[in-house]
């Protein structure tokens, strides 16, 4: 199986694919942050953003999707119907839009998605608009026209000028940890990026804040003060920690002794705590324990136990997948792998593909001393990926043994093991686009 192909395996043609291809040609730039085009389109659609269920708006650099996954699981376990909007998708565009339903939400159907996209295309009347903007408008239509108790809404990029930021009165704004990423669009300093993220704060609406470096927190606090928005900050109004293998959460309303999340890694303690803090801040019904145990979020330190791609690795090899792609994500992953190493020691092999806009050295630095070998691969599809040779050179610059493979399957084929040590632990990482291709090739499409 050649993972260098634009699509890892043939997918059936769908009307939604044709519509999305057509819509992508409406604006020359894939990313062009602005609220004007989105505002015009929403007006033409009758302003569905004003008819959404109570909305929790989530921005930040890392942990947005996992925090939403925890909130969704906690709310659904309490019987709530929950709409969810996230991006990007891994395998199918439908993953971005989950419609609340009794017993648990479901991904939007091809038919419903195609109908909503057709309506937004008609209303847009051929005017310039980015693909993210017009598909977000379609999502707003679907969310407004299907009943639910809550909408969990993830920012696409930044916050201040993101298409999702036309929701005027969210139930709460959430800001996950802020760090350096997307510098071409958000700025080169933590303060500048935090200012963009804090752009989702609305007047007098609660703001729940995860762990932040002091520079980012100061920016968020100033933005909240200007809007008279009450703050719920980790380390001030609430806290979370791991104690004796349990998650311990505390705020002014009391203490919760909860199980450790099923999602792997110490950073998921932080994400679960932020989810609990948010739902408690807005007084929504939530089954915290059940949600923490049930929450699932693909390609976030996900173990791949079997499948046609995994079968190409030598017997006994552990294969893990994560979409982490920036320096903070690399640090969280390295920490999690150190924890796995303490439980059961295995040589670590890193299979890595990254986009050209990412800081490969910043991502790899936390892995120095942990990795037996790094194997660089291209990111499949039409994405502007770094050359594998450049990724391998960055790894070697950090003292790692590194080489290049033509795709993930070939990298797995080439892994060797000896009888003197346990089979290796393999982490495939560096890009959500790479992660999506791996899931597709392994027959593990998110549901």
From TrEMBL:
Protein name (record): Dihydrofolate synthase/folylpolyglutamate synthase
Matching PANTHER family: DIHYDROFOLATE SYNTHETASE-RELATED, FOLYLPOLYGLUTAMATE SYNTHASE-RELATED
Entry GO MF terms: ATP binding; dihydrofolate synthase activity; metal ion binding; tetrahydrofolylpolyglutamate synthase activity
Keyword line: ATP-binding, Folate biosynthesis, Ligase, Magnesium, Metal-binding, Nucleotide-binding
UniProt-listed GO biological process terms: folic acid biosynthetic process; tetrahydrofolate biosynthetic process
Domain Mur ligase central: 58-277
Gene Ontology CC terms, in alphabetical order: cytoplasm
Gene3D superfamilies: Mur ligase, C-terminal domain, Mur-like, catalytic domain
Keyword field contains Metal-binding: yes
Reactions the enzyme catalyzes: 7,8-dihydropteroate + L-glutamate + ATP = 7,8-dihydrofolate + ADP + phosphate + H(+); (6S)-5,6,7,8-tetrahydrofolyl-(gamma-L-Glu)(n) + L-glutamate + ATP = (6S)-5,6,7,8-tetrahydrofolyl-(gamma-L-Glu)(n+1) + ADP + phosphate + H(+); (6R)-5,10-methylenetetrahydrofolyl-(gamma-L-Glu)(n) + L-glutamate + ATP = (6R)-5,10-methylenetetrahydrofolyl-(gamma-L-Glu)(n+1) + ADP + phosphate + H(+); 10-formyltetrahydrofolyl-(gamma-L-Glu)(n) + L-glutamate + ATP = 10-formyltetrahydrofolyl-(gamma-L-Glu)(n+1) + ADP + phosphate + H(+)
